[in-house]
Amino acid sequence: METGRSRPSWNIAKLNSPFHTVILVCLVALLSYLAPKLAGALLLHPQTVWPLWPGCALLVPVLLLVPRRIWPIVIPAAFAAFVLYDLQAGVPVRSIAWFIPADTVEVLIAAFGLSYFSDRMPRLNSLKALGKYLFFVALLAPFTAAFLSAPGIRSDYWTGWKICFFSEVLALVTLTPAILGWVTDGPAWVRKSRAYHLEFAGLMTGLVLLSYITFTIPESSSSPALLYSLVPFLLWAALRFGSMGVSSSVVVVAFLSIWGAVHGRGPFTNGGLFSSVLSLQLFLVFAAIPFMVLAALVEERKRVEEVLRESEERLRLAMEVGKLGGWEWDIKSGRNPWFGEAHTLLGMTAATRSGSVQDFWDRVHPENLGQLRKAMETARQNHGEFDQEFRVVWPDGTLRWLRSQGRFFYAPDGEPERMLGISKDITKRKRAEEALRESENKLRLLLDSTAEAIYGIDLEGRCTFCNPACLRALGYERDDGLIGKNMHHLIHHTHTDGTLYPVEECRIFRALRTGEGVHVDDEVLWRANRTSFPAEYWSYPQRRGQEIVGAVVAFIDITERKVAEVALASVSRRLIEAQEQERTRIARELHDDIGQRLALLTIELEQLQQNSPDLPAELRSRVGVLREQVSGVATDVQSLSHELHSSKLEYLGIATALRAFCEEFSDQQSVEVVFAHDEVPRTLPQGISLCLFRVLQEALHNAVKHSGARHFDVELRVTSNQIQLTVRDSGSGFDVAEAMKTHGLGLVSMAERLKLVDGQLSIDSQPQRGATICASIPLGKVARASV
């Protein structure tokens, strides 16, 4: 049944206290007593046969209104009222004993059936809802109950069964629908217009007068033809006022017809009591049900029309909001109503539009006209839909792109009757697509013309694109050798030394994981012929909005650069070796020759001063000064000899040599140099020891010259895989990038020396924040074994 409306806001299911429950039970008992009391007033002998029993018809809606938890209280209270009335009316106790169980079965079947298969308070405004109601309430419930109540009728069993069945059916077809209608639709009916209320009052007045005439005239004047006069009024009720109007009208007819019949008037007085009652019941039942069906059909149609109107209104609003235009072409009549933004899409104004089909075709661009007509014709023949994009020309010459979708609707004979089409302006999208194509063409041209190899990968590492330079560098003839393939497994699977390169460590993939670019120049890539080449590559994440969707990798073959670097390193090594040899030779010459000669000259001057007492005092004083100067020169020559070549480095090891140099440097430059070191192996390779010694010399000389500091810290630390020399000051500092560009401070010389032993130079300095220079050299197996 219809569930579109919720239960009334005054539903007594809101009871929340025992007091309210007691009040409710008392009201139900009172109504259950008054209903048969009023109905019994229609009968001359209420203790006999009832054409309509109102008790159960009233109790079923009450049960639908109250919560089930109080049904065990409400039902006994109502039945107690029934029993009280029956006893007062003179109904035998034996009959009452049959009626109460029958009523119990009836109301429970009806109430549970409606509750389970429909809303608790159903609306009989559709065929489905009415069908459920008639089955459970008007058929199943009284049919079952009649088997129990039939013995209570003073007649044979089947005659009693028929009387009980039809008296309950009549009540459930007339009273119960009226009560349900007023409960569910009453609040909405009150809000109707005054004219609507007056029309309903006119219907009820006319029906009462006509029913009174039909059912209360003397038997001699009664004519069955008068019964047909009720049909227009029942049609009026069904068509204008729905199920509530029909049920209310049937209640009026039922009560007036019953009153006339029991008083010996109207068309239902012939025959015996049982025959007359049965004829009346059948008339009322079969008169009510068709008009109830008609009312349900009318209301169902109204709802469909209302839904259709709402759908059309929503479509209209959606088209206005979405800037859509529509047109419906009636093929037979040629009518072509336009709606939405159809005229705007074609550049028409109120003064220029006519709404004809030709208006549309006149605006379609000539180059697209044939294509659009063909698409529509294909859709018409195939009974399918068409979806076409085309250009239209506005009156001012402006070109706009439209997308039209539509379909044909056909008559039973298969011929098309009308065509419905929806159009949307897609000019912005087309322009964006054109701009995108131009951008893609430019990008493709750039990729094709650049000498740098470039390819893209998705999140799984599969190649999404590659340029010709990439194919040439990797030795592939066509891009299908790369597209869709995992690039790590294809070209990046192995290290320079031949060991496998796990994808988890791949630095190309790091861009996908971290979202940061990567630059690498110490790895190899593999060609299609399974040969490798040293490569320098850059990997940058590719984003769509804030989401990383892949990476773009650019690489170059640096084989020639590596060869040149090896050659340059070889030259640098030979130059440094030659320089060190020359330093050693000069140091030896200074120490063994010039130093000795200066020492002898110093001794001779001292002897001259001591063994020449006859010399004038002024001359002797001058000889002493010369001796001191020669002694100082000898000391400087010795220090220069040690800087050019340290014998301590050769015989006592790097730590001792560095400590001695720091002490001598402190004395010479009048600064404080603090040296600290770990336990350093004495058997370090000569190249490593000499490199560190020269780096310390260069760093301290530069620091004293440029930093302005008077305190320096020198540290020599050894780990399991490298030895590290650090020189730190808190002086003026410098800009590292600028210093490297200008090749100042001997930084390039230090870096070149470290490269020869696979070392690295790192510098941390900023203006006014001091400087830290760190030289790190990996230790070989021999050096690590001797620690």
Please characterize this protein's 3D structure.
- The protein has 787 residues and is α+β, with helices and mostly antiparallel strands.
- Helix content is 58%, strand content 15%.
- A hairpin with a 5-residue loop joins strand 14 and strand 15.
- Helix 17 runs antiparallel to helix 18.
- The chain is elongated and about 185 Å long.
- The chain starts with 17 loop residues before the first helix and ends with a helix.
Main attributes of the structure:
787 residues; alpha+beta; five-stranded antiparallel β-sheet; 15 strands; disordered N terminus; disordered C terminus
Strands of the widest sheet, in order across it, are 2-1-5-4-3
- Major beta sheet, specifics? 5 strands, antiparallel
**What's the helix count?**
24
Tell me what portion of residues adopts beta-strand conformation.
15-25%
The tally of beta strands, per DSSP, is 15
Shape: elongated
Task: Classify the helix fraction into a percent range.
Answer: 55-70%
> What class do helices, strands and sheet pairing give?
alpha+beta
How large, in whole angstroms, is the Cα Rg?
56 Å
Q: Indicate the low-confidence ranges by residue numbers.
A: 1-13, 781-787
Span between N and C termini? 94 Å
Average pLDDT confidence is 80
Mind sketching the topology for me?
Layout: H1 18-40, H2 54-65, H3 71-89, H4 93-117, H5 127-149, H6 157-190, H7 194-216, H8 230-262, H9 273-321, E1 324-330, E2 338-340, H10 342-345, H11 357-363, H12 366-382, E3 385-393, E4 399-410, E5 416-425, H13 427-449, E6 453-458, E7 463-466, H14 468-474, H15 487-491, H16 507-514, E8 518-526, E9 532-544, E10 547-557, H17 559-610, H18 617-644, H19 647-651, H20 654-669, E11 672-677, H21 686-706, E12 711-718, E13 722-729, H22 736-741, H23 747-755, E14 760-765, E15 771-778, H24 781-785
